User: Fold these one by one.
Assistant:
Number 1:
Amino acid sequence: MGSPPGEDYGKLRETARFSLESRPNTLTQADVTAPAPFQFVLARRRILVIDDDELSQMLTRDMLSLRGYEVVTAGSAAAGRAAVDQQPPDLILLDVVMPGGSGIDLCRELKEDPQTRLIPIILVTGLTERDAKLKGIEAGADDFLNKPMDSQELFARVKSLLKLKQFTDELENAETVLFSLALGVEARDSYTEGHCARLSSYAEELGRHMGLGEPELTALRRGGVLHDIGKIGVPDAILKKPGELDATEWNVIRQHPLVGEQICRPLRSLAQVLPIIRHHHEHWNGMGYPDGLKGAEIPLLARILQVVDAYDALTTERPYKNAWDHQATTDALLDETERGWWDPEIMPLFLKMIGDRIKDAHLPETHSSLEAQNLP
Ligand SMILES: [Fe+2]
């Protein structure tokens, strides 16, 4: 059993929560959109042609190679999947009818795999294969081409989808930088190690328990990692200060939700995460920051993250306290809910969700056992 909450533990806790197509052979200026000084870093775009018909495969390969693309080929769905796993291409041209596995099944498989879902796929079908096209749409194909292939149509579609792929690559890169930055902030404080990953997992689980949809669950997962990214602007002397913070230091801490929102705002893909970042320190009674929002004015996803953040802070060791067990944490958080800190519906719901799991799993009530079982 951990210690009961002291007078200032909430305050103290707070201090610790914080190629384009480079075409070397036949490069045409019209295809190059990057500024000249950057062209040297652009790689050739790689296209995978999956077709069991050797003649058709060779014709497609020659047409695309002449335009400067790097082309790899595979003669079956299984060989195509192996080629994707070995080196993911920038685009796939996929024949629908092949012995030993249909192109539609492979398309579905690739689109369901998080590692490959962003690779554009053009399904190649016969002119009259309406049924195959409908199934292809369901399987997530990005475009279609009819056999026999018209070279101009092939080039136009390939070029357009590669441009789209370039944008998604850039977006992914930008997101990766932000996530790395957020984990870097977390790593500055050894006491909060693993905090972001636990929050993501807790928040998603609670959101699912509350019946939220996939976009909200994704935002909660991302919010778990990114919520404290604004602490990058907080000096170590404040972030790691063992004693109480003075008014000026508190002011610096209180900026981190705003700084975090500013850092993530340029990425439209993070739009649903911004309210979590900005409002994860509001309190139900309006006494939180930065906007002093009250009750349901606080965005729902931010209220969910607050609840799991509070739970994680108490069930893990910090410089000023030991890790508390589930019962002591429940008592403290219900008391805080009474005092108006947390959403009075979501907090009990979360505590019951965790409590039920502990009972079902017959686990001792400690955080480490929760983690060992990967719960929640
Ligand atoms: Fe925070």
Note: The chain has two domains: 9-17+189-372, 29-169.
Number 2:
Amino acid sequence: MTFVYVGNVEKLRNEVAEYQDRINDRYRELLGSNRFQKLEDVVKKVLTPNSFFNTLEDFQKIFPGVKTSGTGSSNNFSISSVRPEIYENGRLVESSGMVSSAFYISEDSFAKSASATFTDKIIGGYIHEFNHFVAFALQERPLELITAVVNNLIGEYYNSPDKVIKLIEAQSTNQNTQNRRELLNLVALAYQYDFQTERTTRILDKNVLDSIGIKVNHSWRDKDLKMAHLTPRYDKGMTIKLLIDGDPFKGVDDKEVINRALDWETNFKPINEYHFSDQFLDSIKCLTLEKVSLDDFLKRNVRT
Ligand SMILES: [Zn+2]
């Protein structure tokens, strides 16, 4: 089985049992048989009952350093052993590591999630989180590593333009100009990743949800992209571009959006080109990673 849930939320277990076959058929159709098979292999290797958390507290007891969205909504977390340390040129210090994945989903977290605005089926929320896992499973090196490393490096989850703008405004002349530019470009990269990934995941959701009769219409789909150009007060020579709204994939059909996201190493282009963050991204492409279950990750990696 590819689309599975082996946690213990009764309502979700029942809904998954009811719709599993239809959903698997749809994934096979959307991903093609090679990727579908690869997804199944990663599911078997990585997901165990311990991958599923019913409360955020239980998750944070084990991974206190992983930043969450702060809203209490359901989540799929990528866990990585790659140390958040970079050289002066932006490249990661480590060249290999382990990655794993964990879910936080309960009836309570589902009620707080965006999916609850269009369905009362908890499986609707789980499909969204599972689609983040699909990216983790099928990307050679999960792109989620950007936020995993940047969060750890900077200690904040930059998932809204407001947060990035606040950071830009908080910059002062006390800081070395070079370091300030590097920090902002790295945060802008993490934010761009988050924005695009949410949009891609919602596009994948729509196609999977449709197989169980849940219709979703994304108001932003095929709308012009809205971008902000920001200049820090103390650094007029710098501009940071931020995606605010609209569709980064306007004119591209759903299957191709999904295809490009899964092959991000060819297709993901930072909108802010900056040597430091480009080097950081390039060093992610050079990592050798092993995808493991959370049980194995904890057994083999004492530092979290
Ligand atoms: Zn999401």
Note: The chain has a mean pLDDT of 93.
